[in-house]
Amino acid sequence: MRFSNGTRWSMAIVLAFWVALGAAGHADDKKEKSKTSSAQIVDSGAFGIFVKGQRVVTETFSVEQRSGVSLVKSQLKEMAASDSIKQKSELEFNGDGALLRYQWDQNAGGAISVLPNNDFLIEKITTASSGKPAEQPFLMPNTTVILDNNFFIHREVLAWRYLAADCKPENGNLKCQQGPVEFGVLVPQDRTSLRVRLELVGKEKVQLRGSERELVRLNLTSETSQWALWVDDKDQFKLMKVAIPADDTEVIRD
């Protein structure tokens, strides 16, 4: 799949997102002295989660860079309940995609954290009734992708990671190879690991908030699920829509 000049510029931003994170840790002393502490916002906004056409949850999120580290924040509010936050998460990783920490909390009590520990990942689970966290090790590298339940911004980060790894310059263009790419992922709320496949399908015309948009489709599959993701190649490949047909669920960027 080849992209226009405008699209190549957007892709370059996605690639630079990862490259800049890796390079930030190697800046010279002069750059260190001049570096400000302000964060660069890569993306922010909200997703509406619709089940059978009815909006049930809103996810608000932000993705920011600071000093060679990316921080992905997300929180969920149920439409039928009060305005209080039901769940929130923070995912922090470096420019190589290596996990620094993951934290999940819910207002009903209970928390989950995932941290690297040598060649393992350690998940610590605290329930509302327990005092000391239970620990569960995973023999997985620190570059394992976090794809926790209900946080669709994690799927955007995975899509960016796929595009940065699978799309290469060729004769002045960026070309994405055909065929699925496999990722090992950890789902902290389910306390399980699995493998998923992400594959570029191509451009499609999609209905989005009452109008037709041409977006780039990616298929995300595992042994038990099939999702369609649509990203905007004219706006830094931001995630715009997700369809999960088996659950009659759609996710739409507000």
Q: What radius of gyration results from the CA coordinates? A: 19 Å
Order of helix and strand elements from N to C terminus: HHEEEEEEEEEHEEEEEEEE
- Major beta sheet, strand line-up: 8-7-6-5-4-3-2-1-17-16-15-14-13-12-9
Tally of extended strands?
17
Name the features.
single chain; alpha+beta; 15-stranded mixed beta sheet; 17 strands; globular; disordered N terminus
Q: What does this protein look like?
A:
There is one protein chain. It is globular and about 55 Å long. The chain has a 15-stranded mixed β-sheet. A two-stranded antiparallel sheet has the order 10-11. The chain has a domain at 5-60 and 72-83 and 145-253. It contains three helices and 17 strands. The protein has 254 residues and is α+β, with helices and mostly antiparallel strands. Residues 2-6, 8-13 and 19-36 have low confidence and may be disordered.
Summarize the structure.
This protein has helices at 5-24, 29-34, 153-166; strands spanning 40-51, 54-66, 69-78, 87-94, 99-106, 111-117, 120-126, 134-138, 145-146, 167-170, 173-176, 181-187, 192-208, 211-221, 226-232, 238-244, 249-253. By secondary structure, it is α+β, with helices and mostly antiparallel strands.
Task: Itemize the secondary structure elements and their pairings.
Elements lengths: L4 H20 L4 H6 L5 E12 L2 E13 L2 E10 L8 E8 L4 E8 L4 E7 L2 E7 L7 E5 L6 E2 L6 H14 E4 L2 E4 L4 E7 L4 E17 L2 E11 L4 E7 L5 E7 L4 E5 L1
Parallel strand pairs: 9-12
Antiparallel strand pairs: 1-2, 1-17, 2-3, 3-4, 4-5, 5-6, 6-7, 7-8, 10-11, 12-13, 13-14, 14-15, 15-16, 16-17
